[in-house]
């Protein structure tokens, strides 16, 4: 059994209940913490700004016009409105250095092809996916020149005022089928990243555990086959390590409530905790634990407009094999503290 994952700040000596952050922490680390905190509260912060604006009479005509624009805006279904200056903002490097987060490519990718990247595991909030595919913190465009990748998320996120525009500026788009096909048909190099396990997999995210929801996920495979796009597995070692989560075994009351919320809203509510801004023991900030994202070898697929179940199963088998190849090659380097081996639970 592997050793239990511990925070880098812990030791064998007995620790106080609340371990406060010392005053002499270097400024660079405080800067990293501040950026991660601001990212974490981006949703409530944008909502706060919007609702405060609604209380100011001067802004009301502009708000009404904006809401009408949102109502008819089809950008989330057509690749969003990506701005390179937002992706390349220098503070994203501070964000990546907080954990730190690394990006590794196994092979070069042909920029004349389109790719459907499958990201694993989901983690609590898919931090590795955001850092490596939504920002240039780790120079994605230099590692994969000619590849324009968009991170796909729930369409409901684009109904949230201001937050939707923040997501699109970073290069996010809707995960609907129409959105996926619109992006893949834009031309050479246009690609999408789908966090395959979805909200349900986030309920299994805990340190040292890599339990994936994949066996019954055929939508992204069918999408690749229908559009003749290459399937490319992406695995992030450490994605599940950065937060702790309350025990929620299948069938428990907590689990039932979480699944009910997921069915009603499409969202889920992992009961997670990490560290605080001024302490190391409790809070919503993630722990400073390394995440290493490996982009695997692409799988060439034959374009078939209406693939059969048997054809999809064959492609899925190749995909799972390639995912396990990544795991077996890097697990003893980046998952030394794993509790068990990579497991496909659904």
Automatic annotation (TrEMBL):
<keyword id="KW-0812">Transmembrane</keyword>
<keyword id="KW-0444">Lipid biosynthesis</keyword>
<dbReference type="GO" id="GO:0019432">
    <property type="term" value="P:triglyceride biosynthetic process"/>
</dbReference>
<keyword id="KW-0443">Lipid metabolism</keyword>
<protein>
    <recommendedName>
        <fullName>Diacylglycerol O-acyltransferase</fullName>
        <ecNumber>2.3.1.20</ecNumber>
    </recommendedName>
</protein>
<dbReference type="InterPro" id="IPR007130">
    <property type="entry name" value="DAGAT"/>
</dbReference>
<keyword id="KW-1133">Transmembrane helix</keyword>
<feature type="transmembrane region" description="Helical">
    <location>
        <begin position="47"/>
        <end position="72"/>
    </location>
</feature>
<comment type="pathway">
    <text>Glycerolipid metabolism; triacylglycerol biosynthesis.</text>
</comment>
<keyword id="KW-0012">Acyltransferase</keyword>
<keyword id="KW-0256">Endoplasmic reticulum</keyword>
<dbReference type="GO" id="GO:0004144">
    <property type="term" value="F:diacylglycerol O-acyltransferase activity"/>
</dbReference>
<comment type="function">
    <text>Catalyzes the terminal and only committed step in triacylglycerol synthesis by using diacylglycerol and fatty acyl CoA as substrates.</text>
</comment>
<dbReference type="GO" id="GO:0005789">
    <property type="term" value="C:endoplasmic reticulum membrane"/>
</dbReference>
<comment type="similarity">
    <text>Belongs to the diacylglycerol acyltransferase family.</text>
</comment>
<comment type="pathway">
    <text>Lipid metabolism.</text>
</comment>
<keyword id="KW-0472">Membrane</keyword>
<keyword id="KW-0808">Transferase</keyword>
<dbReference type="GO" id="GO:0006071">
    <property type="term" value="P:glycerol metabolic process"/>
</dbReference>
<dbReference type="Pfam" id="PF03982">
    <property type="entry name" value="DAGAT"/>
</dbReference>
<keyword id="KW-0319">Glycerol metabolism</keyword>
């Amino acid at each position: 059994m592997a050793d239990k994952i511990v925070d880098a700040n812990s030791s064998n000596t007995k620790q106080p209940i609340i371990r406060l952050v010392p005053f002499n922490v270097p400024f660079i680390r405080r800067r990293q913490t501040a950026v991660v905190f601001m990212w974490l509260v981006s949703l409530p912060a944008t909502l706060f700004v919007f609702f405060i604006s609604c209380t100011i009479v001067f802004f009301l005509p502009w708000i009404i016009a904006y809401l009408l624009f949102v109502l008819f805006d089809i950008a989330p279904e057509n690749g969003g409105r990506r701005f390179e200056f937002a992706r390349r903002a220098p503070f994203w490097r501070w964000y990546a250095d907080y954990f730190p987060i690394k990006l590794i490519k196994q092979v070069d990718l042909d920029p004349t092809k389109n790719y459907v990247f499958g990201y694993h595991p989901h983690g609590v909030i898919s931090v590795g996916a955001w850092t490596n595919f939504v920002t240039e913190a780790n120079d994605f465009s230099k590692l994969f020149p000619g590849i324009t990748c968009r991170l796909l998320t729930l369409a409901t996120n684009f109904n949230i005022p201001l937050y939707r525009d923040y997501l699109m500026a970073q290069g996010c788009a809707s995960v609907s089928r129409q959105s996926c096909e619109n992006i893949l048909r834009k031309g050479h190099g246009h690609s999408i990243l789908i966090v395959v396990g979805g909200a349900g997999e986030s309920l299994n995210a805990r340190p040292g555990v890599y339990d994936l929801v994949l066996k019954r996920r055929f939508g992204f495979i069918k999408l690749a086959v229908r559009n003749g796009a290459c399937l490319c597995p992406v695995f992030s070692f450490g994605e599940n390590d950065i937060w702790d989560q309350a025990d929620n075994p299948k069938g428990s009351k907590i689990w039932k409530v979480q699944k009910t919320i997921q069915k009603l809203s499409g969202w889920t509510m992992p009961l997670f905790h990490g560290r605080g801004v001024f302490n190391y023991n409790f809070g919503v900030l993630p722990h400073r634990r390394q995440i290493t994202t490996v982009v695997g070898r692409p799988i060439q697929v034959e374009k078939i407009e209406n693939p059969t179940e048997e054809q999809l199963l064959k492609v899925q088998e190749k995909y799972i094999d390639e995912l396990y190849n990544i795991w077996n090659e890097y697990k003893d380097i980046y998952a030394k503290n794993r509790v068990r081996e990579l497991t496909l639970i659904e």
